[in-house]
Amino acid sequence: MDRSKDQPLMTAGVDLGDKYSYLCLIDTQSGEVMEEGRLRTTPEAFLRRFTSQQPMRIAIEAGTHSPWASRVLEECGHEVLVANARKLRLIYTNKRKTDEIDAENLARLARVDPKLLYPIEHRGEEGQAHMAIIRSRQALIGCRTQLVNHVHGAVKSFGARLPKCSARSFHKRASEHIPEALRVALGPILEQIGSLTQRIRDYERQLETIAKEHYPQADLLRQVEGIGPLTALTFVLTLEDPYRFAKSRSVGAYLGLVPARDQSGDRDPQRRISKEGDEMLRKLLVGSAHYILGPFG
């Protein structure tokens, strides 16, 4: 049997671990395992192992290390498939799950049909850095929310209540209504909330600058009343290349905003939205939709 011209001679599966990654290399034609081993999960180790290797197809699972690993492997001249871990039942439901077996399963799936991996595309390094600012802002908001809830709960336990106000002004408004017995306990908390609010504002100013200098298409989205700079920039960074979607309607499914399906024969129950894709962007879009459909839209 003649070997396909557009198919690499070797197919590899790499199970990425935090410190070590496991490699399984198989012959594309015969399916025979040619090499197994492990290497450190560092860019330097990956460059040493794969730079001089003949071009091949490499499958890895999406995870913490997959963005930089996929970029390094592509720089070495290999075809990289980043598998959607949530859809690989062969791996996550395996009763004999080990790193070595996972690496081999990735390689065999990539050899038979790459579509079985439900491959995803990582954003570029610059886009990843900009998205990190958005997620850092979101992390600070979560911390601030926990502290605000703590203050509310502590004050209520003393029979008092705080006035309604925005999270931005909470540290100023709440300080006037804290019971005297709680000032020692809650004073530092209010100071920390104020500090977090300032850091959040700093991130928001950075994102405004990034959107203007790097992503002018975000301004088009902001023409819709209810779409702010954060939602517009997150949308642009998450999709990155809109032309990878054959139809614009596919974006809704990509973000988990369409009903899930569980059709079998005559059975086709109505289900809620699938909630797949980026959770933060989905929440931002739903919040914008509520504004647009509300009295201020």
Tell me, rounded to a whole number, the average pLDDT. 91
Strand order, largest beta sheet: 3-2-1-4-5
**Biggest pleated-sheet summary:** 5 strands, mixed
The secondary-structure class comes to alpha/beta
C-alpha geometry: elongated
Question: Which descriptors would you attach to this protein?
Answer:
alpha/beta, 5 strands, single chain, 11 helices
Task: Describe it.
By secondary structure, this protein is α/β, with parallel strands linked by helices. Helices cover about 45% and strands about 10% of the residues. The chain contains 11 helices and 5 strands. The protein has helices spanning about 45-50, 65-75, 90, 100-110, 125-155, 170-175, 185-215, 215-220, 230-240, 250-255, 280-295, and strands at about 10-15, 20-25, 35-40, 55-60, 80-85. It has a 5-stranded mixed sheet. Helix 1 (about 45-50) runs parallel beside helix 2 (about 65-75) and helix 9 crosses helix 11 (about 280-295). The protein is elongated. The termini are far apart.
